[in-house]
Amino acid sequence: MDINEITAAVVDALEDIKGQDIVVLDTSPLTSMFDRMVIASADSTRQTKALAHNVQEKLKEKGVPDQGIEGLASGEWVLLDLGSVVVHVMQPAVRQYYNLEELWSAAQDQRNKRNATG
Known about the structure:
There is one protein chain. By secondary structure, this protein is an alpha+beta fold. It has one domain (3-108): Beta Polymerase, domain 2 (2-Layer Sandwich), CATH 3.30.460. The protein is built from four helices and five strands. The protein has helices at 3-16, 45-61, 92-98, 100-117; strands spanning 20-26, 36-41, 68-70, 77-81, 85-90. Strands 1-2-5-4-3 form a five-stranded mixed sheet, sandwiched between helices. Strand 3 (68-70) and strand 4 form a beta hairpin. The protein is globular.
């Protein structure tokens, strides 16, 4: 599967269990560690864990095994590493506090400014 198919499968798996506010960020210009970051919110620890497990299972069925999963014990923020795609499933308060979208967008803006000035 290519990166776009993997990302679409992740989003589908999150939508299956009512993941909210799903955002996909292209991180390829910023890091060589992964190409996409998918962030979603969940209403409870149970839903956070269920979303992460659903992504894990759906991608495994498609031949994309995970390389690690962190945060299942607390369930406030679960990170799933799929190699080229990293998935963050967070409860709203945690997501608002860490604000990954703004952090990575700011990094992209800084990179664009450096490239524009040469």
